[in-house]
Amino acid sequence: MEIIEVGPRDGLQNEKRVLSTETKTDFVRRAIGAGVRRLEVAAFARPDRVPQMADAEAVLESVPRSGGVRYIALVLNARGLDRALALTHRPHEINYVVVATDEFSRRNQGVPTMESLAGFRAVAARARAEGFGVTLTVAAAFGCPFSGEVTPDRVREVVAAAGDDLDELCLADTIGVGVPRQVTALAAAVREVSSAPLRAHFHNTRNTGYANAIAAATAGFQALDASLGGIGGCPFAPAATGNIATEDLAYLLNRSGDPTGVDVTAAAAVGTWIGEQLGLPVVPAQLGRAGDFPA
Q1: pLDDT in tens, 100-131
Q2: What pLDDT shows up at residue 206?
Q3: pLDDT at 213 over 90
Q4: 295 occurs within a structural domain
Q5: Among all residues, which ones are annotated catalytic?
Q6: Could you tell me where the beta strands, DSSP code E, fall in the chain?
Q7: What is the CATH number of the domain that holds 171?
Q8: Nearest in space to 116 (alpha carbons), one of 131, 129, 101
Q9: In 3D, which of 79, 89, 31 has the Cα closest to residue 57?
Q10: Which of 138, 75, 147, 136 is nearest to 104 (CA)?
Q11: Percentage above 90 pLDDT, the chain
């Protein structure tokens, strides 16, 4: 099972303290040292709306480029792709977010879902022509803070309308309302219209994130997002607390016979460190306090 480290992007974007480019680069370097090899490190978002990501270009230009590490940047529109293309050191992949519900999509991106998908199709074709890997993330796939329940039929409809210009499909529980049964149902629904490898993005808002992760592994998902320390959330979704923690998820998967390549002790140390940089008295992750087992 592949763990994708999203702490440098989703982890930081909801925290009050804005870190320097140097600290973010150090965060990435430490994450790599703990065994992570695929990281989402920046978002090409409007600096006035997401000030934590204002230095996206500087971060991508400064992170280390070796050891088979792949970097992902979040884009929301064609302008985001233009910013990625202008870099000397580009990301290896882009992650384009489309929200499953019209109400959340209008609040997050200013357009309804199907209009956002038209933007995705145009950007995805350009991105693949430029050699980027392309992930489509369907946000709020498990539930919406404004519209309530999201059905598997709706998620299937969104994925079917996305087209085939994608290398990976990510289903995101943006506000942490999902349960394992939904994971299984959504996997079956999207498999009817897409053969893209599946990735999942879980938040632990209601303490179901790790159960959902195991359900995803059982349902054939190949990658799971997590953030060191369990930091983060969505600034546009009320009460969306942190992602499942990289160190806790790696412990769970490693002990369950799904090796991740992540050293949980080293990852826990990075989780504690990033919490200190953010001025957090304690991070949500448990491994930094409990330790690995056996010791």
Answers
A1: 999 999 998 899 999 999 999 999 999 999 99
A2: 93
A3: yes
A4: no
A5: 234
A6: 2-5, 38-44, 70-75, 93-99, 133-139, 168-173, 198-202, 223-226
A7: 3.20.20.70
A8: 101
A9: 89
A10: 147
A11: 92
